[in-house]
Amino acid sequence: MSADTTPISPARFASAIKDLSLGMLHLKVLEIRNSIAHLQYSNDQLKPFADGTSAALGESATPAAPDQDCIDAIKENEVVIDRMAERLAIIRAEVEDRGVSWTEFQSQDEVEANTNAEVGEALTNGDVVADDQAAETTRHSAWTDGTFQTGTISNGQVRFDSQPGEQTTSVNQSEAQSTTQGAERQDGHDDEEEGGLHL
User: Fold this and answer.
1) What are the GO BP annotations of this UniProt entry (predicted)?
2) Rounded to whole angstroms, what are the CA distances from 191 to 181, 182, 188, 196, 197?
3) How many other C-beta atoms lie within 10 A of the C-beta of residue 74?
4) What's the pTM?
5) Which residue of 52, 118, 122, 188 is most buried, as measured by CB atoms within 10 A?
6) Are residues 88 and 73 in the same domain?
7) 92 assigned to some structural domain
8) The pLDDT value given to residue 169
């Protein structure tokens, strides 16, 4: 970073995003995540040199002393990553203040992390049930016969949650495909005068 520049303060950043649309906020989140990913990749590449386990090209093949420039660059990148994470938190607060769920803004990694954190907890009407069999006996059949389906929409992809003990069938797969590809199919009714999509 240049010595004569300073980053925007969190308060100024928060006021700057107030007038942005949800679409622009989504793009800003993607931009910040991309910046964080590049900084983390850079740190991963610099780490062997900062640790002294690798030597720069043209130097001796044996590992050298830790490179202070690489150590400083990693520290600076970590400061910037923390600042970017703070900006993500500010955007999240703004999105939730507008009454929109943050789940639409979550990255695939966050969705998978949340899913993995919830594994093992069987919920029935918001109550944690000790074992899976108790959950199966107290749940209404509508939850297991396909009447109700739960899932997530993330990054434009629809993912249905699987039910415990449910086997994925081609019928379930074709139903999921028909919901996402319904606008593309017209089931051969192109010749009819009515036109449109027939469900």
Assistant:
1) proteasome regulatory particle assembly
2) 20, 18, 8, 11, 12
3) 19
4) 0.53
5) 122
6) yes
7) yes
8) 47
